[in-house]
Amino acid sequence: MQLSVTQRILGFLLISFSFTLLPPMAVSLWYQDEGLRAFIIAFFVMSGIGVLCWFPARHKKKELHLHDGFMITAVFWTVLSVVGALPFLLIPNYQMTVAQAVFEAVSGFTTTGATVINQLGSLPKSILYYRQQLQWLGGLGMIVLAVAVLPMLGIGGMQLYKAETPGPMRDEKLTPRLGQTAKALLYIYISLTFACAIAYWIAGMTLFDAIGHSFSTVATGGFSTHDASLGYYNSPVIEIIAMIFIILGSLNFTVHFVAWHKKDLQHYWQDIQGRVFINIVLVLIAITVIVLMWQGVYTHFWTALRYGSFAVISIISSTGYITADFSVWPLFLPVLILGSGFIGGCVGSTAGGFRVIRLILLYKQAIREIMRLIHPNAVIVVKIGQKKVPDNVAQAVWGFALLYMASYVFLSLLFLATGVDYLTAFSGIAATLNMTGPALGNIAVTYGDISDTGLWILSFAMLLARLEIFTLLVLLTPAFWRR
Fewest C-beta in 10 Å: which of 122, 252, 272, 463? Predict the structure, then answer.
C-alpha cells in the first residue's frame, strides 16, 4: 500500500472540498447573517489540513493499486464527514457537541437526512443552505462512487448491473475514462436539480427554499429548511413534484444517461431494475392506502393516496421527507413503511438500502435452488434479462446480504446498550443503515435526545452503508494491513 499516494490524493480532495464553502459564505453575505465567521474558519481549517497532507507528497505520482483504492475511498468519506462538521460546531448562539455536529455532517454527506437540530428557523440562512448543499454533494459523490469507483475495486453494485443491462451498456463505466464518466453524471445531476428547483419555485416555494429542497430531493437526502419538512407547505403540487424527482433520483443514472443520450425513453422500461422498483412502490402504496381507508385514518380516498404514496416513496427511496407522521399510523404500516427502506432504490442512484438489483438476484438464486431440488441433475444458470450472472457476482451478493443483516443486528444491539428502548434501537439502526432518516419511537422526528455514544454508533452505521459495507470493513481486517 502506497501511503504517500493516498496522502497526496486525500490532501487534494480536502483542498477541493474547502472551496464548496464559498457558496455558503456568499449566502451569509447576501442575508447578512451570523454564519460568515463559521465558514471562514472552516475554510481555512479544511484547506490547511489539505495542504499539510498534499504538500509533502505532491510529487508521489504512482499508479494506484487495489489497496490504495480501498484506503482512499474509505478515508476520504470519513475525514470529509468529520471536517464537514466544523460549521455546525461554530454556529453562533447554538451549542452542539462534537458528536452532534459530526452526526449532522455525516447525515448530510451520506444523504441520510436524520437531524439532531430542533427549531431550524432559528439557524442562519447560510447554515440552512450548507446542510442542503452537503446532501447535494453527497448525492453526486454517491453516484460517482457507485458507478465509477467501487466497480474498479470489485465490490460495487454495478457488477450486478453489468450483468443486467441491455446492449448499449456492457461496461461498468458510461464512457471509457473515469473523468468522462464523472462529467456525464454531473451534467445529468445538475440538469435534474435545475429542473426540480424551477418546478418548486413555480409551485410556490421561495427561491431559497426551492434551491435548497431541489438539492436534497434529487440527492434523495431529505434535509429541509423547515421543522415540518415538506409538510410545512401543505401543497399537493409540491408533493407531486417531490415524488417525481425522488423517483428519478432513485433510478440508475446510467439509464438516465443512455435514455437521454439516445433520446429514447424506452430504455427506462427496458431496465428490469427500474421496473421492479416501480412495481414494488405501487404495491406498497396500494397496501398503505387500503389500510389507511380501512382503519378510518383518512375518510377520503384521495387524501389517503396523497399521504400514503408520499410516505412510501419518501422512505423506500431513503429520502425521508415528511408530510404526515407515519409512525402513529395503525397496525403494521409504520413497520412496513420503515422496512421498505431495506429494499432501497436502484444501484447507481442516490438512494440507499439493499438495492433492488441485489434483491432481484437473491430471488433468482432462491428459485434456482428450489429447481435444483426438483431436478438434481439439471444445469441451471441465473440470468437477469438475457445475460448470465457470473458466479463471483452471485457469491458477492450473498456475502453482502450476510454482512448487511449481521451489521444491522450487531449495531442495533450496540445502540440498545446505550439505554434506548427496543423500538428506538432497531428502528434507528434501520433508518441510518438504510439512510432513510426518520425512524420510530423517540427518533420519529429528531435525534436530538440521543446520547453522544448513540450518535457515534449511528454515524458509523451511515458511513458503513454509504461505503457499501465492504469498503469500510475491509480496512478493519488484519489481512488488509499485512500486505
Answer: 122
pLDDT in tens, the chain (483 residues): 567 777 887 888 888 889 999 999 999 999 999 889 999 999 999 899 889 988 787 776 666 666 667 777 778 888 888 888 999 998 877 888 999 999 999 999 999 989 998 888 888 999 999 999 999 988 887 666 555 555 544 544 444 444 333 333 334 444 555 566 677 778 889 999 999 999 999 999 999 999 999 999 999 998 999 988 999 999 999 999 999 999 999 998 888 888 887 888 888 888 888 999 999 999 999 999 999 999 999 989 999 999 999 999 999 999 989 899 898 898 899 999 999 999 988 888 888 888 898 898 888 888 888 888 888 887 777 777 777 777 777 777 888 888 899 999 999 999 999 999 999 999 999 999 999 988 888 888 889 889 999 999 999 999 988 888 877 777 777 776 765
* Residue with grid cell 450518535, as numbered in its chain: 455
Do residues 243 and 232 lie in contact, with contact meaning Cβ atoms separated by under 8 Å? no
What is the C-alpha to C-alpha distance for residues 88 and 5, in angstroms, rounded to an integer? 31
User: Which stretch of DSSP H or E encloses residue 383?
Assistant: strand 383-384
Show Cβ contacts of residue 77 under 8 Å, excluding neighbours closer than 6 positions: 109, 141, 463, 466, 467
Q: In angstroms, what CA-CA distances link 417 with 410, 411, 424, 451, 454?
A: 11, 10, 12, 11, 9
Which H/E stretch holds residue 387? strand 387-388
- Residue showing cell 385514518: 297
Q: At which residue does the C-alpha cell 402504496 appear? A: 285
> How far apart, in whole angstroms, are the C-alpha atoms of residue 265 and residue 262?
9
Question: pTM of the predicted model, to two decimals?
Answer: 0.88
Indicate the SS3 state at residue 388: strand
Cell of 297: 385514518
Q: Name the residue among 408, 410, 456, 461 with its Cα closest to residue 432.
A: 461
Q: Which residue has the cell 497532507?
A: 53
Please say whether the beta carbons of 70 and 471 come within 8 A: yes
User: DSSP label at 445?
Assistant: S
Give Cβ neighbours of residue 331 (< 8 Å, ≥ 6 apart): 291, 295
The long-range contacts involving 381-390, CB below 8 angstroms and separated by at least 24 positions, are 384/160, 384/163, 384/164, 384/272, 384/357, 384/360, 385/164, 385/165, 385/166, 385/272, 386/166, 387/163, 387/164, 388/163, 389/160, 389/163, 389/164, 389/361, 389/364, 390/159, 390/163
